[in-house]
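hey so u asked for the seq, here:
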Amino acid sequence: MIKFTKPLLITKLKATGIHMSLSLVVFIYLAYQIYYNWYPQPYFSNDGGWQGIRLVAGVDLVLGPLLTFLIFDLRKSRKEIVFDLMTIATIQFGALAYGIYATYSQRPVAIVIIDNFVLSAIMEHYGGSLSSEGVLKQYSDEKPPIIYAQLEQSSAAYAEAKRKMIEEGIAEQAQLNLYRPQSELKNVLQERQGLSNREIEYYKATDKYNDWLQQNQKNREEVLIVRFTGRYGAAWLVFDLEGKYLSYF
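ran it, structure tokens below
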């Protein structure tokens, strides 16, 4: 069992502090990417961004510095110290690479309005049918794109959507053949306002809606809203009367 004498403890704390400082620089960069580019609000709070940043923080700010504190010892030979540092770096970078990959691969690449739902679509949902995220830009200028997918109200259409999901591994909100032009988004949002108004009452979001309207100097007749259901929560997306995304609450 290692005896943590005062000189040894000071040395370990210094080494851990240096490691923590370097890790913090990496974490700040990754946190920026996650919050502003991969999971812009409200998707950070409701669709996995917060979970991803905690995963990255756990690896970058906890695992690496903790290993340094436990292993680093200047009483060892130079060769042993180099080996220890290389081992720590390998473990941390390997775990961090996994954390980054998991967070990046689960980010929403599209927000899809389909049937009576508004859902996120990640790359995995497309089952290999999406060659590039750039394809989605034709449907929306937002990031991630907000897309209307029209699922015909017939048993045959539902059966085909289910077949693709089961046999080809393509989720309903990720079936490109259902995606409609950006110009049609306004119409579907207008058609859904009756449902959205009932949902506002049902989910007891009236106060939040009124607060948003007051803060943005709008009234209900000037905006269109729709409820987005994320993997970890929900939010209301707000559009102008032309279907342009404004904000959320």
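The first helix runs from residue 6 to 38. The chain has a mean pLDDT of 94.
lmk if thats what u needed
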